[in-house]
């Protein structure tokens, strides 16, 4: 463990030391770039890896903007910044379609190539004892068996709108459930870990790829068939005709402003190539959790262990600079 952490810290220090040379070599060609860092673990890895590639490979001066789904698109709409929005889960995000139709943003890629998996989850040990809880009907009839609480997404996450609509459609509160809104993704993950440690019930929203669903065996509640019309209504906070629909496998995108794509075509091309499989991301996140590593350390882990992947993302010149750092 000690050797692994020292190696990671050394790689991060070496990268930091090289920044001045890279900036001096390519700064004029790239200039300033702003990129979101959404407030969940996989998004942090995407941002840290992208920041490293842009800074060390292309000489960019990168500003990282902490954000989440709704605020990031509101900022783009109002100010034209940040330039790059990564790991945007668009199923619960009506503003995405509007900004796309207005030509304000350009979609570059599926940053999670397999898409995102979302749903309502219960620990498998609870479902093994009470199989009926894996259905919506059984769940609503037995609130006490899952602790009488639904764990809701934090403010600013697109999933909050969908979960609110689903909770209203099935009358969660009327059926004896408290809807508890978390203040952050970290507290949601902590609540799951605490439940598993004590072998207690838990019910709430979660998604993959995450270290949580990789580590803890959970069962997705059957919310019925997916209905696109209902789901889109549920995602819109102003829609009143809410209903019951499962989550689809969600497209997870990287978008840039139209101005940025025109102004920085080389970086837009790079970000078009930055794409992780769920298996790759899940493995990185599991390593991060097991080693209590930071987002920077998780990015270094990816860069050192998946060189065959990221080397296909970058230009020849950037590849040469980055390979010299990470060999």
Number of helices: 16
- How big is the Rg? 21 Å
Shape from CA axes?
globular
* Estimated share of beta-strand residues: 15-25%
The major pleated sheet works out as:
3 strands, antiparallel
Q: How many β-strand stretches?
A: 10
What is the strand arrangement across the widest sheet?
3-10-4
Task: Average the pLDDT over all residues and give the rounded result.
Answer: 89
Structure overview:
Helix content is 53%, strand content 17%. The protein has helices at residues 2-30, 41-58, 69-79, 94-101, 124-129, 136-141, 158-170, 185-198, 211-215, 228-235, 258-263, 265-273, 278-290, 295-305, 307-310, 316-326; strands at 32-38, 61-67, 84-89, 105-110, 117-123, 149-152, 178-181, 204-208, 218-220, 252-257. The chain has a three-stranded antiparallel β-sheet with strand order 3-10-4, sandwiched between helices. A three-stranded antiparallel β-sheet has the order 8-5-9. Strands 1-2 form a two-stranded parallel sheet. Helix 2 (41-58) links the parallel strand 1 and strand 2 (61-67). The longest helix is centred in the N-terminal third of the chain and has 29 residues, at 2-30. The radius of gyration is 21 Å and the shape is globular. It starts with a helix and ends with a helix.
What key phrases describe this protein's structure?
alpha/beta, 16 helices, disordered N terminus
């Amino acid at each position: 463990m000690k050797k692994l952490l020292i190696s990671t810290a050394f790689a991060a220090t070496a990268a930091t030391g090289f920044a001045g040379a890279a900036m001096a070599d390519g700064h004029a060609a790239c200039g300033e770039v702003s990129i979101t860092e959404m407030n969940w673990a996989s998004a942090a890895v995407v941002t840290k890896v992208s920041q490293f590639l842009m800074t060390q490979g292309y000489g960019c001066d990168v500003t990282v903007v902490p954000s989440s789904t709704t605020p990031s698109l509101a900022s783009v709409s109002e100010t034209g910044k940040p330039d790059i929005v990564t790991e945007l889960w668009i199923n619960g995000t009506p503003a995405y379609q509007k900004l796309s139709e207005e030509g304000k943003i350009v979609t570059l890629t599926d940053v999670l190539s397999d898409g995102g998996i979302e749903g309502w989850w219960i620990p498998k040990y609870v479902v093994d004892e009470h199989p009926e809880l894996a259905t919506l009907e059984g769940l609503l009839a037995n609130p006490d068996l899952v602790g009488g609480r639904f764990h809701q997404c934090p403010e600013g996450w697109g999933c909050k709108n969908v979960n609110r609509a689903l909770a209203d459609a099935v009358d969660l509160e009327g059926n004896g459930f408290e809807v508890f809104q978390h203040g952050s993704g970290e507290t949601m993950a902590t609540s799951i870990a605490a439940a598993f440690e004590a072998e207690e019930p838990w019910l709430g929203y979660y998604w993959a790829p995450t270290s949580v669903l990789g580590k803890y065996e959970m069962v997705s509640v059957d919310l019925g068939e997916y209905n696109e019309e209902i789901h889109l209504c549920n995602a819109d906070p102003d829609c009143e005709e809410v209903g019951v629909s499962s989550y689809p496998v969600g497209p997870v995108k990287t978008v840039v402003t139209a101005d940025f794509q025109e102004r920085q075509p080389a970086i837009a091309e790079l970000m078009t190539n930055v794409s992780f499989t769920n298996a790759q991301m899940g493995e990185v996140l599991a390593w991060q959790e097991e080693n209590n590593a930071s987002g920077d350390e998780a990015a270094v882990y990816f860069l050192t262990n998946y060189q065959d992947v990221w080397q296909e993302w970058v230009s020849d010149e950037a590849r040469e600079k980055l390979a010299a750092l990470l060999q």
